[in-house]
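Follow-up to my earlier ticket, as requested here are the two runs.
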Amino acid sequence: MTPTDPRFAPVAELFERFAQEDPAYAGQLALYYRGEPVLDLSVGPDRAPQARPEPGGDGGAEDPAFTREVMTGVFSCSKGAAGVVMALLVQDGVLDLDAPVAAYWPEYGQAGKEATTVRQALSHQAGSLGVAGGFTVEEYNNSQLAAARLAAAPPNWRPGAVFSYHGLSIGILMEELVRRITGSTLQEVYEERIRAPHGIDFYLGLPESEEPRYRDVLKPEAGPLPFIDPFGYLGTAFNSTGGFTREDGEPGELLDLPNDRAIRAAGMSSAGGVANARGLARLYAAASTGIVGEDGTRSEPLLTEHTQTIMAEDQVFGPDRADGLVKAFGVVFMKPTPEKDFGSWRVFGHEGANGSFGYADPSYGIAFGYVPARGEDGGTLSRNGQLSVRVRQAVLQALAGG
């Protein structure tokens, strides 16, 4: 779409240049400003239909073109959607961030985790990175099974002493808390209270009816991720001791996860979400400003200003215990650092391992979504920036000059 606000024309032009600078590039970009969509773009050659290989085969069904409507895996952006669910429970008064996790989930209160608080668990301080041997895909897809194993395991450090990104297990923690508090799954609460009422193209559990719109995540051209010690902190956090098995029975990597139908159908809240850029931006607009409809009326924001402040408040900042990278987290949500500066002190959002990114910045009234067709060096596993950094800076420059 052509920018509805001329101030954002330079942002659209910059995004178009990505495809000019790299003929292989394809991606999506969406922006809401004060609740109204002002950008919804896709660029690149992958807008043309391609053959979508079947697992273990040489070809198969036609892959949907990488248009604005296509959805793909967005990895840890899923945590942002789950974070809005957790924020609603806080706002409802049924989840106390400073209560022990065991107050809601008694089995978790063992093996040195008796005093671990919800706040610690939701800001990567709990030390519940994983379990010996890793989790199976089946345990992630039915996280009650994974939760029982995680509850019995000792923490990887004294809870609260340090922090390290709970790349996959934070989804188990969130899902079990929601199940214990509401009697429903996190995915059900998200669908009923957030996604469906606001028409958001961001699914935690992609229905079969939406499969024709799914596009496989393409691997980075740089190749697979480097070796990670399976028994170290990082290896434990990313399930290296268990790994993943693809649909064709071969070993899989993290970036294979959403390309497995069983995983995207289950919608694991740490990494199984499926979205397009519009869906990311619309989620954060619904959460922070409300959305202006075609009739000019605005929906109430899902989260009050007070709740947004609670969830966006910095909980940890500094070097991650596992990889030494400087990171910052609020409650569930990522926060800016000098190396990855994506907004004001009020901003809240999450990026994904493939370089996808979604966030809301209440200071500017913006909600942002970015999704590349091919994984980029610069997602949650990298110290480098990615193309979305340039776009985010352009958005802020557009607003500063307006």
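Run two:
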Amino acid sequence: MTAAPGTAARRGRSRTTDLTTGPLGRGIIVFALPLLGAALVQLLYSTVDLMFVGHALGTEAAAAVGASGLIVTCLIGMFTGLGTGTGVLVARHFGAGRHSQVDRVMHTALAFGLAGGTLLIPAMILIAPTLLAWLNTPDEILAMAVVYVRIYLLGLVSVVLFNMGAGVLRAVGDSLTPMLCQLLGGVVNVLVDALFIVVFRWGIVGAAAATLTSQTLCAVLVLLALRRLDERYRLRLTRFHLHRVTLREILAIGLPAGVQALVITLSNVAVQYRINGLGIPDIAAFTVWFRVENFLYMPVMALGQAASTSVAQNLGAEDRARTRRAVRVCCLIGVAVTSVLAVALLVASGPILGMFTADPQVIALTTSIARIIGPCYLLFALMEVLSSSIRGAGHALPPMIIIVSALCGLRVVLLAALPQVFGAVTRVAMLYPLSWVVTNALLLAYLLIRRAVLWGEPRD
């Protein structure tokens, strides 16, 4: 076992969590908590944002924002994937103490994000009306939706740079700074919403402009944080360069992760299509469940990012035993956290669901959904940790293929082939644990077959 070079130099950085040394469980939890905080901040201010639009501008404006949600989600998913690719490479080099490589990956990623985002903006603005029409956006809100999307797209470079920069910071163990950036951006978003929508009365333009302002602020704050990193790999504008080999490495990990997020989003459209054909109470019940589920989903996603960074850092440090232990620890934490949260949800389902609806029928249907999916959520935690660990080892394509085929493909095929079987809300809910079981089985099989390649054979 070899200690990571440069470890001593990194210990003094107060916001950096070195996952190659110290108690592993504590380090993973400390690293994951700010990731969870960032997700909560994002959820909170997006909810407040929608409340401003719905209450101040009316139902049609809220629908226009919602209609553009799929385009926004797909774009964010792709760029988050590229941030993942950047983070995995940076974490690997950081764990090995290869500071010049950290510098190269960071500057290549940011240069690519700046160039790619700038080129993508005019193209996306041009085809926005066509995309919204394909999504069957009603004519009465199409114009507002186009305006919202086009203004949102002006901040595309900011979205890319934030995700790339946040990926770098998390890879070197600083998950707190991206959270603080998002927190400040969220506060500004709410304040600017009030200013643009309530005071200036800019309507849907004000809502989009508020989002653009907060995104730009988040990107600027992250870039400033990168300027304060260790002098051996801190951000310097003169270092921006598209290094071809490094860019290929980033895309080899980032593109599969981005495509995976994109396909998962699109597969959810198929599920929503089936739900929409069941009836108003069923639609409302799944809407409530998806809101409640966020509080199960977000800790799992934070833990997945922690698993990916921990695996990448420890593989960079050539500590194979600690790498395998990190995967086991993340799995145990994931099972424990989701089990506790699921039990709490089921025990207090009445008061929790009552926060979102007063309809007894909707509460009863949502409770049925929770009883099916909630106890099985530990399977989702295992799936996220295993796929993130494989990705952290630099193998992003296999988990993408497995998840796209088993998780997304299975749901779409079953819904299309057996519409009568999935003709009730509880049966649609069963698709989730069923697809998680199949996906986990395939991921575990891949891990067993390829464990020597991923992180070395156990030394028993």
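The only thing I checked on run two: The chain has a mean pLDDT of 85. Let me know what else you need.
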